[in-house]
Amino acid sequence: MRKKRVMLLSEGFGSGHNQAAYALAASLRRLCPGISTRVFELGKFLNPRIGPLIVSAYRKTVSKQPKVVGLMYRSNYEKSLNRFTQLALHRMFYTHTSQVISQLKPDAIICTHPVPNAVVGRLKRLGLNTPLYTVITDYDAHGSWINQEVNKFLVSTTVVRDKLVDRGVAPSRIEVTGIPVHPDFWTRGDRQEGLRHFGLKDMPTVLVMGGGWGLLYEDELLEYMTQWRDKVQLIFCVGQNEKVQEEMQSNPIFNHPNIRIMGFTREISKLMDIADVLVTKPGGMTCTEGMSKGIPMLFYHPIPGQEEENCEYFVRNGFGEVLDSKATIDKWFTMIQEHQTAEQFRSQLLARRNQQYDPAACTQAVLRFLQ
């Protein structure tokens, strides 16, 4: 009997969609080694010249004009991708999608972005019989995710489920599983081992992340954190933004033994094990990883739209706080000076996580579908 095959399709409009696909693929192989998985960033794979240019343009808009992104998000909030848009996308980027599917013969297709979700939906209307599962990677339900050909929506919370139901999706086609994270985030690792691994000091530590694109804005609050550098170890992760990394490394404010500036890394899980507080933009994946680790989070500069909804969810449920003043920094940076207090708070967050979120639930749901 051949292995079950799962094709996971994403797009590069924000790193979280790809992260979710790779996390789910790794989790499926972890829980069931007999499964074969393939992940595709579909536009980049099928059109390697034009696809990255569109993603680059989107990235520049996010960094330079986030309000425009928010306006676009809100103006189309209730709308699914219409048939004309689906057809145009298919002809522009995905004319070979059906050929790829025919060649790989997957037993299931999982989409972690609305665009490939719409394209596969169109193929299903044209006769494709492969089950389509859609993982919504935020704590909101934008209309672009909705597709009548989806066999099952896997969503983060009951709030997202209810929003889909309000838009006509049958409850039987929705399962609340939480957003998938890589198995490395399922449990908290050994802090001392992580400190040794990175060559860091055993002292209160704050991890500052700008997302996969490294969108760290010039912000007085981020610079204010450096005033704590004699008492707090600061780790700045700027992702793939080499320009920001070079600017920070050449800035005397960040030149201190207790400050580490890092570019892209695949070891965020280990860094979260070390950190006492996570300062981050409220992307759905990063926040879910932080929640899974039980680390308190401070959210800065949410992009208007889904990041605002993500931020609201985690603040409302006690996993974080909006970083809107120097007083907020002083409050949290003072609290983590008391190691026992910080550990007790983290234990409380892990208990709260266990009540609301099972990191393996999404993967287990997919395995049930494949039986």
TrEMBL record:
It comes from the Bacteria. Residues 17-181 form the Diacylglycerol glucosyltransferase N-terminal domain. Residues 205-340 form the Glycosyl transferase family 28 C-terminal domain. Signal peptide: none annotated. The keyword Transport does not apply. Pfam families: Glyco_tran_28_C (PF04101), MGDG_synth (PF06925). Its main location: membrane. InterPro entries: Diacylglyc_glucosyltr_N (IPR009695), Glyco_trans_28_C (IPR007235), Glycosyltransf_28_UgtP (IPR050519). Keywords: Glycosyltransferase, Transferase. The keyword Transmembrane does not apply. It is found in: Membrane. Belongs to the glycosyltransferase 28 family. This is Glycosyltransferase. The lineage of its organism: Bacteria, Bacillati, Bacillota, Bacilli, Bacillales.
